[in-house]
Design brief:
With about 110 residues, the protein is an alpha+beta fold. Helices cover about 35% and strands about 35% of the residues. The protein starts with a helix and ends in a 7-residue tail after the last strand. The relative contact order is 0.21.
Length: about 110
């Protein structure tokens, strides 16, 4: 399920030293699946689950990327205002076997 995949991805990032800030942040602009913090970086993750990683990646539209970027800005304004940090937006793809493929900063700049 999507919830199981989300927990798998969260554990994957936590093993790399990331701390979960929030699951499923909802804003007027849209939803962010996961938000993390490590050192001076805040990371937002869009999770897609499908039979293959390629199919999962194809389900991320430019409109959705724009909404994720807007939601990330809202999250920062609401939760981290006045703090100095880098921002990263990853795509995390989970296939039917539960294997995770991370595409770092895949969603930035749209």
């Amino acid at each position: 399920s999507g919830h199981t995949a989300e927990l798998q991805v969260a554990r994957h990032y936590e093993r790399d030293g990331w701390r979960v800030l929030q699951h499923r942040f909802k804003s007027a602009a849209g939803e962010i699946d996961l938000a993390f913090h490590r050192n001076d970086t805040v990371l937002f993750v869009e999770l897609k689950r499908a039979r293959t990683h390629d199919i999962a990646a194809s389900r991320i539209s430019l409109q959705q990327i724009a909404r994720i970027n807007q939601s990330a800005e809202i999250f920062v304004d609401e939760h981290l205002s006045g703090q100095n940090f880098e921002m990263r937006l990853d795509a995390s793809l989970v296939d039917q076997k539960g294997e995770i493929q991370i595409i770092p900063n895949a969603l930035a700049g749209f």
